[in-house]
Amino acid sequence: MSELHQYHRSEELLEEALEVIPLGAQTFSKSITQYPRGAAPLFIDRAEGSRTWDVDGNEYVDFNNALCAITLGHCDPDVTAAVEGELRRGTIFSLSSEVEIEVARLILDTVPCAEKVRFGKNGSDATAGAIRAARAFTGRERVAVCGYHGWQDWYIGSTLRNKGVPQCTQALTHSFAYNDLSALERLLAEHPGEFAAVIIEPMNVAWPAEGFLEGVVDLARENGAVSIFDETITGYRFAIGGAQQYFRVTPDLACFGKGLANGYPLSAVAGRDEIMREFEEVFFSFTMGGERLSLAAAVAAITKARDEDVPAVLARQGQKIVDGVTQRIERHACGEFLSIAGHPSWSFLLIRDAAGEDQWDIRTLYLQEMLQRGILTLGTHNISFAHSDDDVDRLLAAYDEVLPLVSSAVESGRVRQLLRCEPLKPLFRVR
């Protein structure tokens, strides 16, 4: 291993940030709750393609990709050119602009369930809008959830991060486990005629069991509820038309974000015309809702994803990683506490307790060592169109160094001794 990466400037900026910003970051998943302080970069200076550079000048192959928001690569030239072409015409106007129609038609042309579209800025905007429309359409209030659906009260109240959410709001949201149709059936039976919506990430860590997604949509329909696929990550990643196209299951509504505009702030709710017409009455309105730079980015991103079959490339490169990591887990005798799961374009290294060692201590050691080898990850492999074979080889080479180190530490009970920082603690878990 080369000389240790140093994070002096990151640490200085963190101290400055903590004086004016709670947690020192705008997103939990980019903060010291997720990256081991003292053994990780905390501030990025720039990024291009598959690479990113921190404020201390350290270079990384980026397998985080802004929490899956980057599907084409950082500063994709086609997206950048589209945005630059709009800059001098204005960012946002006092009335709507034609590009809103262009993006809406692109979504209608690529997403199976889409008959009408409304735009937001974050994935949380889209999911909250879909829930509000479903409640308006059905005249009901309860919601069944499976997966992660953003920060707003209606959802986050159902998690351990529910501080500040009224009890009356928490009581209207009910969670059920992925691949457990009987759990959803029980929820619907316990509150007959009360559920407005069933919202689900069509896939995250686990693959859907045969008939599961179809069953979710059918159960929702049979009980008069709106079925919603939260495709904030899977949209334009699993397939051009998202997971609904990939798995051939069409919901009533779907929510998109993240890679919709390759990292520019844009999200969308799309779905059946009769439900989408509720947006004529329910209040879903943003000053920045028609912001042109992100819409121009979306035109370029969707067009490129379609014309160059980007999802197929993501899956192909990602499968090399899934296969390579699987082989190395076996080779380095890590199967007791490590496994890999998920779709090839968005795979997860799963870490478990083992031999008296806590999974969060193991996770911290893993991150500490991968970051030292120039791999930016949170334990996921979020593939972009810019990831080359050399990037994949560099990742697997890092695994060949890190996994035997971690395996030895677990076997000898020395994980904590090898940490150069305090171990991470869980934020909350929904996947």
In short:
With 431 residues, the protein is an alpha/beta fold.
Q: Could you explain how this protein is built, in words?
A:
The protein has 431 residues and is α/β, with parallel strands linked by helices. The chain has 2 domains: 165 residues, Aspartate Aminotransferase, domain 1, CATH 3.90.1150.10; 231 residues, Type I PLP-dependent aspartate aminotransferase-like (Major domain) (Aspartate Aminotransferase, domain 2, 3-Layer(aba) Sandwich). It contains 16 helices and 14 strands. It has a 7-stranded mixed sheet, with helices on both faces. Strands 1-2-3-13 form a 4-stranded mixed sheet. It has a 3-stranded antiparallel sheet with strand order 11-12-14. Strand 11 and strand 12 form a beta hairpin. Helix 3 packs antiparallel against helix 12, helix 4 packs parallel to helix 12 and helix 13 runs parallel beside helix 15. The radius of gyration is 22 Å and the shape is globular. The model has no long low-confidence stretch (mean pLDDT 95).
Salient structural properties:
431 residues; alpha/beta; Aspartate Aminotransferase, domain 1; Aspartate Aminotransferase, domain 2; 2 domains; seven-stranded mixed beta sheet; 14 strands
